Amino acid sequence: PELHKIISSKDFEDVAEKTLTPKGWAFYSSAATDLVTLGNNASFYRRIMLRPRVMRDVRKADLTCSILGCHSSAPFFVSPAAMARLAHKDGEVALARGCASEGIIQCISSNAAFPLQSIVEGGVTNQSFFFQLYVNAEREKTTQLLQKARDLGVRAIFVTVDAHVPGKREADERLAADNTMASAISGAKASNDKKGGGMGRLMGQYLDQTLSWHDIPWLKEASRLPIVIKGIQCAADAKKAMEYDCQGILVSNHGGRSLDTAPPSILTLLELHAICPEVFDRMEVLVDGGLTRGSDMLKALALGAKAVGVGRPFLYSLTYGQEGVEHLSQIFKDELETSMRLCGIPDLTQVSPAMVNTRDVDHL
Ligand code: FNR
Fold first, then answer.
1. Which listed residue (28, 45, 90, 254) is catalytic?
2. How many CA atoms lie within 13 A of 74 on its CB side?
3. Is there a catalytic annotation at residue 296?
4. 274: how many CB neighbours lie within 10 A of its CB?
5. How many whole angstroms from 254 Cα to the centroid of ligand 1?
6. 90-110 pLDDT, tens per residue?
7. How many C-beta atoms lie closer than 10 Å to residue 228's C-beta?
8. In this structure, what are the phi and psi dihedrals at residue 5, rounded to the nearest 5 degrees?
9. Model confidence pLDDT, tens digit, residues 299-336
10. Hey, which residues does 157 pair with through a beta bridge?
């Protein structure tokens, strides 16, 4: 359909299912084994109720905020995803342009199809970028990459820690890998093996499985940038990130793609509230996984997230190129603004846990 007929994130998903190559669809939409975490990421947002307050002046709702010191027109950003070229020939560059015109931030994947420089220079000047890091078992390569990211003006490093062992994504394994594809950043390629053609698994073979908390000082020194740990899944590890003086955490389970039956990320956010509320003051807490509506975003913000990441929906919107990305961003802004105004919230400084009723999931 024409772009103006698309009115929700789900509409983009439906188009992507029909228009992507079977392999592209399998790689993007798949998740680990029985898809339990994938489903729960989304469905748990529906088990949390909003608590609207009425009779407040809400002619407008101001969505602007700052994420890790970077201005953003809205409290959401594009979560890093490998191989955006499977959705559109201009891949991550088109994504960058869409984000630039919308004033939102893109976190670039270590396994992006395009070189870091083309992506960073593909948008407009003064655009902020985050870079997602997969630490290479050959550490020297990582040191060089961090140096490059810094030189190119990247504003923060998101170190992914939940995919050092590849998740078993069966839909992706069943179809042959596209071995003409490679990441221009990490050099990772996919070539089929006995287990199948899983792109995520095959492209993740360079990851350092020995990475530990003791490596944080090295990452800080090599990048001299704010460090965010991506893939925090419990309160104990959120505390660890705080103890190691990280600037932020991204509560995430890799969109259900790594360990199936890991908790949905919104539940982990609630766990942080219950067990280590101090982390919200000491670090920027971000969350991704399963957000498809502005109301989902508002719930995560109410529960202390500074901003939320969106993965698959932006990949699906990219089937329409830059304009699709802009259109999805506008849909999200519109839905979030509507939810805020109906809840009596004029700007993001006013969100608080009192806005949500979490009773249905509090016993978990
Ligand atoms: C991802 N994700 C991911 N994360 C990361 O740190 N590095 C990466 O290269 C990728 N690649 C990737 C590819 C694809 C196709 C998907 C769908 C996801 C995970 C991503 O950053 C994010 O955590 C999830 O996508 C969030 O869940 P939703 O929004 O897709 O439900």
1. 254
2. 29
3. no
4. 9
5. 5
6. 999 999 999 999 999 999 999
7. 27
8. -85, -10
9. 999 999 999 999 999 999 999 999 999 999 999 999 99
10. 131, 227
